[in-house]
Amino acid sequence: ALWWLAAFLFRFVREYDGETAGGANALREAWQSLKLLRDDVPFRHFVITRSLLLCSALSAPFFVVLAQRAAPSSRMLGAFLFRFVREYEGETAGGGNALREAWQSLQLLRHDAPFRQFVITRSLLLCSALSAPFFVVLAQRSAPGGRMLGAFLLASSLASSLSAAVWGWMADVSSRNVMIRGSGLAAIVCIGMGVGGYYLAGSAALIWCIPVAYLVLSVAHAGIRIGRKTYLVDMAGGTKRTDYVAVSNTVIGVLLLVTGGVSALASLLSVEAVLILLGLLGAAGTLSALRLKDA
User: How far apart are CA 219 and CA 113, in angstroms?
Assistant: First the structure.
């Protein structure tokens, strides 16, 4: 059914004309390209080496034991042949000490107020990503046996396929508003399921509310992702955008470890309490996104 739905939706995808300049006979162009193997010695050596290295990948699905014995020897042979591959000098302009450059990039959080506000907002919006596993735990506790797995897969697929175009169109208008709406929606769902888990524990209504709530959460998460990516692209350009992405991803990676650990410890007490806590984080993220300026 999903394949039929995807085929139907693809009818509305707008196609753009590809690059056709310099077109020629495909077989003739392919034959001329293959002559590189005859005329370019370093490239021919590289292709031979790469072909030999395929053995470990090709043999694994069929002869696991044989692959384990053959892979080390093939890799040693590949390493020996790579000694004869000619390397060309890469781009090194502007290079510097990696730790010093990373530390200087982190100073953006102190000196760049709009970027600092964006990182704070993005950190609070982690609620949509962190809460998804607890929906699954709540479903397993309410309906053991894995009966809800199909419903969760269907909800995730529908959320990604149906909401992406809508969120993308809204992000073109205002990526800030997309983050506000996505985080607000995620906060409502998390708090609602946390409270519902307390008062409707074991009921049939809760069992069927969980997949629906997970669908809404997935839609909200898709909006948050599209909104914050679009906002970051609009906020900076060139090398500054690269620094923004690197710093924000580093901070988010550290916070994921911290908040993931805290959530895991809190889940030992109550899954519902974790969902309410993450919902409150999402609400704080909504308030923080309201302080952002339209990029």
Answer: 30
Burial of 6 (0-12, 13-18, 19+ CB in 10 A): exposed
Instruction: Report the C-alpha gap between 279 and 295 in whole angstroms.
Output: 26
Q: From CA 291, how far away is CA 270, in angstroms rounded?
A: 32
pLDDT tier at 191 (50, 70, 90 boundaries)? Answer: very high
Mean pLDDT of the residues in the chain: 78
pLDDT tens, residue by residue, 1-38:
555 555 565 565 555 454 444 545 667 776 777 777 78
71-to-68, 80, 83 alpha-carbon distances in Å: 6, 14, 19
Structure-block tokens of residue 61: 């699905």
Up-side HSE of residue 38: CA atoms within 13 Å toward CB? Answer: 5
Centre a 10 Å sphere on the Cβ of residue 139 and count the other Cβ atoms it contains: 23
Is pLDDT of 177 > 80?
yes
pLDDT (average), residues 247-252: 87
Candidates 273, 252, 295; CA nearest to 123 is 252
In sequence order, the 6+-apart residues with CB closer than 8 A to the CB of 24 are none
- Could you count the other beta carbons within 10 Å of the beta carbon of residue 73? 11
Scanning the chain, the segments in alpha helix (DSSP H) are: 2-10, 26-34, 36-39, 41-53, 55-59, 64-82, 98-106, 108-111, 113-124, 127-142, 149-173, 175-199, 204-235, 238-267, 271-290
Whole-number Cα distances in Å, 109 to 45, 112, 255, 294: 48, 6, 15, 19
The answer to whether residues 276 and 127 touch, using CB atoms and an 8 Å cutoff, is no
* Measured CA angle at 172 (ends 185, 238), to 5 deg: 115
Alpha-carbon dihedral sign for residues 54, 56, 62, 66: positive
